[in-house]
Amino acid sequence: MKIILFCFVLLFLLSSGGQAQKQYSFIRLGNEDGLVNNQVNCIYKDHQGFIWIGTVAGLSRYDGVSFVNFKHNTADSSSIDDNYIINIQEDFKHNLWLETSQGYEVYDVREERFYSDPNEYLEKDTSIINIDRVYCDNHQQIWLKDYNKEYYQLLDSATYELRSVFPDYSETGSYLVDFKHANGYLYCLFGNGTLECYDDSDIQLIFSDDYLDDKMEADSLNAELFIDAENDVWFYGNNLGTHHYNALTQQWSYYSMTSNKTQLTSNIIRRIVQDDKGLIWVGTDHGGIDIINKYSGEIQTIYHQPDNDKSVAQNSITDLYIDDNNIVWVGSYKNGFSYYHESIHKFPHFRHLWSDPHSIPFSDINCFVEDDKGNLWIGANGGGLIYFDRHNNRFTQYLHDKNDPYSLSGNVIVSLFIDVKGDVWAGTYAAGLNRFDGKKFTRYQCEIDGGRGLTNNNIWSIIEDNKQNLWVGTLGGGIVTYDRQTDQFKPLPNNGTIEPPGPFINQIFKLSDGNMFIATANGVAFYNVEEQRFKYHPTINRTEPFDLGNKAVNAVYEDTRGFLWIATREGLIMLDSQTDYIKHFTDNDGLPEDIINCIEEDEYQAIWISKSTGLSQIVVNKLVTNEYEFHIYDFTKEDGLQGNEFNPNASYKTSDNELIFGGANGFNLFKSKDIKYPNVLPKVVFTDLQVYNKTVVPGQKVHGRPLLNQSISLTDEVVLKHSMNVFSISFTALNFFIADKIRYQYRLHGFNEQWLPLEPAQKQVTYTNLNAGDYVFQVKASKADGSWNSQYSELRIEVLPPLYATTWAFLLYSLIILLAMIYYRYSMLRKERLKFEMEQEKLLINRNREMDEMKLKFLTNVSHEFRTPLTLILTPLHKLMNQATDKSNRKLLEVIDRNARQLLELVNQLLDFRKLELHGLKYNPSYGNIVAFLQEVSTNFEEAFTKKRISFTFTHDVDQFMLNFDRDKLQKVLMNLLSNALKFTPENGSVELSLQIDTNEELVYISVKDNGIGIKPSDMDKIFVRFFQSEHNKKLGLSGSGIGLNLAREMVQLHNGTIHVESKEGKGATFKVVLPVTREDGKLEETAVEVGVDDQEQPELHIDMKGKASILLVEDNHDFRTFMKETLEDRFNIYEAADGQAGIEMVHKVIPDLIISDVMMPRVDGLELCQNLRKDIRTSHIPIILLTARTADEDKIKGLEIGADDYITKPFNMDLLVLRLNKLLEKRSKMQKQFQKNVEIQPSEVQITSMDEKLISKAVAVVETNIAESSFSVEDLSKELGMSRVYLYKKLVSITGKSPIEFIRIIRLKRGAQLLQKSQMNISEIAYEVGFNSPRYFSKYFKEEYGMLPTAYMKSFNKEDNA
Fold first, then answer.
1. DSSP code of residue 504
2. Coil, strand, or helix at residue 236?
3. Please, what CATH class does the domain formed by 426-674 belong to?
4. Which segments of the protein form a coiled coil according to its record (predicted)?
């Protein structure tokens, strides 16, 4: 079986030996890319896929994008102990064994720490084993060699015990130089040159060879073995080349710089490896890399080329390493490292290199053509014409020589063609056309001898039709054809009506039917060779050109399917001429609208296009009619292209199905089947975890707790505190095949379920403020060809809830809630008990309050009732006092009057207190002289103080001081204070009322001072408390009601003032009232002061009445109503009603001239009576006077607002009442007279109530509307107004003093007077116009109204006009 395999491999390698040397293109990396140092000693790839590079200055880990460097840190005991790394190996725990200049160290990849003592890592006593060397075999088992042992010992991975597995062959008597494990065998090389091979399963000796006995030399300690895939042994390291042991033939061969067949570039060999093709790579010192075909003996050397950035990094090779993806890693002595794989730089690249004399002489390439030998003619952009002998790998260059007329006409070649005779036609830019027959160039230029018909020297396209006629497309001169017989060019004939798009021809392409497809700067055209005419369509007669969007077309192409492809300056267009299907490729298809330069088709019908951003391969699949599927694959400079931009016309397909594309940096020549993608799924690993932008390492505590127990790359789950709400995860795909083309997508299960794309350079995702819960972060990568890997890496993330949301917290909350419920239950029961007790107490309080309210209400009602008897006492009393002539009788009457007044004051005080309890007192200020006011109040007490022989004085600083104050309430305050002073001051005492003004503080000080009994200190803070009565005063018989001072304080506080007392028991008391000064701008307001029972002067009555007026008395008190009737019946006709309801009924019966009503009555009170009468149009005109025991201002205001004409409080002066009755009746009489004077056709200006005004206005309007109707009567007017004739009569008489018939007649006469003044009508016409049946009646009534006949009235106005 081995022999068959050997023959097959030999046949393959021998067959490939005759081909041109393969190009090896590398990617370089060094210190400028992040490598710790450019002197590389060793390279290794671990099980995760990281590349580890050992240098003389530290260790680097490479992930395909970036480096992580490890260096010795004296402050960190877990850092690497020695920076000089010689070798890297990996054990069964996937930890790394590092051989340094100081010995061995172990890097624990999980804990991310270094063990400087391997025994500590192995948990071995250093006294047991003295480690000389360490070897990790292919199974990652650890072999240790003791200084005192000849062979390596195997470390048991389970027990960590060392086992000696090799038999002790003491006859070697030499030290062990190298130890290798390969293909199931263990190889031992001893210092004496003995080579032993053992079976690794049972450690049985397979063979022993001593060929190397005399080959070890003095430097044998550096000697090494390499065992290839065929078990061949390669010995090197003695600086004398390499010895090769063939396992099949068991023969040795030798390779060196001086060997006969295969010669190396250097005898100093640093490393030997074998690639996946079976080729042996030999890394040498200063000799680059020799690649040996061990079967054919052929050798190819890879050198560093200073002007080629894709060459190996340096010729001094320090290490070679081939990983599991067959990538060859090459370490250099001073220039970092480089790596190679045929799938990285996929496209062979030919360009000029000054370091390679065999390279193409010029790099900027414009066009290609292939001869019958398979060699290439290449047109350079300034480098002339180049012939590429591919079999000999040799380039020949032809240049313009100004002294040689048979040389090229110019060095800028833009088009090439080989005709049927084998002549090479070369079109130039600005130098015409050249024909090369193998010996000399024949020039065709339009400036010389007419150019033999050539129309332009810019030759952009050359082609031959099926009749072997040569077509030449020029840039500015259109298309010409070449006549071989005459050696002349002729214009292209056009027998059709369609003109060519323009003279600027970019390409002429011959279609499969022999016709031409032409690309121009102004679109495309088709030319039928047989019919010799231009067309818009290749097969049918189309009248309009295709809509190409951008008309500048660089190239056209017909593929083997018959599809037409058009390359424009703004994208690619595909046309199916059979169906007229047009496809414009856009970004949505994966093909940007870039500049498209050239189009070619490979042997698999895939379309290749060169553009301004690289190459693209388009795979076309037809689904159904006019529906196609396109798969587009893009390639860039990173794939090995000469550049991302390609030149127009610079493409070609050879006879061997090779595709060529050229640009400014050379050309790429390839077969599409050789373009291989690595069959490697990019593995994504996590490289970093950051919390608040700080990297977290294993074992590091963050906010008091360790986050990572091992490296993030090996971690499956991370638990974060809720406070760690800003964290980042870094990752990378361990793929070294053009890492820049790899794209990433990520998602976080539990947060977002959709895959989200990342920017190409972004390899980190940050999350902030995640809610507590379990998440799974997943990330996947794409392959280099753009397809996505279905596998992804994931990291489980648990975000712990905050302390207040943990399970223990919720248990605590539950306990708290349970305790709260228990406490709530207890509290509710306790609350209910307290509530019950409070309700009982409240019921008791309410019951007591209701009792107090009932008492107070009873007293208030009684007080109200007192006012009516007091009125019946005081009013007749005043009459008796006026009539009394006997002094003794008058004195008795005065005593009665004084006590009645005192009783009235007590009633008023009780009413004020009741009002304070219910609604509070209202402040009604007026602007007045406080000095005059105090003088007026004090005057009322002078007689009382005199009778008690008390000295009373009123002192004041000024004679006049104006401010705002409530006269009524301040009067009650002073009356109360002066009354108390009178009461508590004994005979021969003194009382002083004083007024002081503080102009700075804007305050008024009023004090009442006496020298009476004073106030006990214990009572000082209680005297202003409601219902307080001093026990001391009770004993003295001086106790009051306990209301006065409390009411006085409330009234002072309404003024925003204060009241306080100063007293010494037995020496009197001083009450001080302090009021703030507030003023009004402008004139003093005149305040209407009611005339009460104290008025001294009574006005005389002047009532001029033809007859008695009728008055309705509405009063529920029979005695008071009788008294009023008897008093008023001499002057008026009196009607009576016992309550408000009876009063309303009586009003409608008698229509009185005036109504006097009490307010407080059963059934309907006085206010409701007034409101009802004012709403009724029939009674709204009647004046109403309200009599009431309610003295509050708000009660007066309410009564007046409802519509009362006056509001008089009980008790009152009867003469004052009679005066007001006469004034109201007199006012009504004046209103009637005013109406009689002012009635016009327009609404009257008489001042009446709004209801009456509406009535009169409506009545006037109705009469005016029917003024010409002589039959319009009082009945008609009453119907229009909605009133009975009787009510209308009473209403009009009450308001106007005129009956309805007089009202109608006056309006007719007023209209007649107007017509007499202004119209040209005669008197008869006017009489009939205003509704009179006869001019005689009109003249009669006109004379009664105006005092003259109509004729005289008309003449008087005519005289005034003439004057």
1. B
2. strand
3. mainly beta
4. none
94 pLDDT higher than 50? yes
pLDDT tens profile 791-805:
889 999 999 998 888
Domain boundaries defined on the chain: 25-126, 426-674, 684-805, 921-1076, 1109-1229, 1239-1362
What are the Cα distances from residue 741, in Å, to 339, 734, 789?
17, 13, 14
DSSP per residue, 813-868: HHHHHHHHHHHHHHHHHHHHHHHHHHHHHHHHHHHHHHHHHHHHHHHHHHHHHHHH
Q: Which two tokens stand for residue 1204?
A: 């009362």
Strand partners for 1345: none
What topology does CATH give the domain 684-805? Immunoglobulin-like (2.60.40)
3-class SS at 1328? helix
Alpha helix (H) ranges present in 1037-1107?
1044-1054
DSSP 375-418: -EEEEEBSS-EEEEETTTTEEEEE-B-TT-TTSBS-SBEEEEEE
Q: In what order do the strands lie in the sheet with 990-998?
A: 951-956, 990-998, 1003-1010, 1068-1076, 1058-1064
Residue 341 has which token pair? Answer: 């794989």
Say whether pTM exceeds 0.70: no
Average pLDDT of every residue of the chain = 84
What burial letters (b/e) apply to 1161-1200, b meaning 16+ CB within 10 Å? Answer: beebbbbbbbbbbbeebbbbbbbbbbbbbbbbeebbebbe
The DSSP 8-state label assigned to residue 770 in this structure reads P
Q: Give the residue among 1167, 1212, 1205 at the shortest CA–CA distance from 1183.
A: 1205
**Residue type (1 letter), 282:** V
For the chain, give the longest Cα–Cα distance.
180
**Cα–Cα separations (whole angstroms), residue 317 to 31, 35, 290, 759:** 17, 17, 11, 37
**Contact status, residue 432 vs residue 419, Cβ threshold 8 Å:** no
In whole angstroms, give the CA distance from residue 252 to residue 211: 8
Structure tokens, 958: 């000024």
In terms of CATH architecture, what is 1239-1362?
A: Orthogonal Bundle (1.10)
Instruction: Assign domain 921-1076 to a CATH class.
Output: alpha beta
Strands 1109-1114 and 1132-1137 turn out to be: parallel
Helix H segments across 28-115?
none
Q: E strands along 1015-1098, which residues? A: 1058-1064, 1068-1076
Q: What is the pLDDT of residue 1240?
A: 44
Which of these, 684, 643, 642, 689, lies nearest to 667 by C-alpha position?
A: 642
Give the helix ranges, DSSP H, for 1203-1334. Answer: 1214-1238, 1250-1265, 1274-1281, 1285-1296, 1300-1318, 1323-1329
Beta bridge partner(s), residue 1184? 1155
pLDDT reported for residue 1337:
74
> Tens of pLDDT along 812-825?
989 999 999 998 88
215 burial via Cβ count (<10 Å: 0-12, 13-18, 19+): middle
Q: Is the peptide bond before 986 cis (omega within 30 degrees of 0)?
A: no
For residues 1143 and 1135, what is the distance between their CA atoms, to the nearest angstrom?
9
Number of C-alpha atoms within 13 angstroms, CB side, residue 932? 7
For residue 169 the two structure tokens come to: 């062959």
Sheet holding 459-464, edge to edge: 459-464, 470-474, 479-483, 488-491
Residue 1094 has pLDDT above 50, yes or no: no
Q: Can you tell me the distance from the alpha carbon of 1341 to that of 1237, in angstroms, rounded to the nearest whole number? A: 16
The span from the CA of 35 to the CA of 40, in Å, is 10
Residue with tokens 């970093």: 688
Q: Residue 517: enclosing H or E segment and its boundaries?
A: strand 516-520
What architecture does CATH give domain 1109-1229?
3-Layer(aba) Sandwich (3.40)
Check if the beta carbon of residue 980 is closer than 8 Å to that of residue 944: no
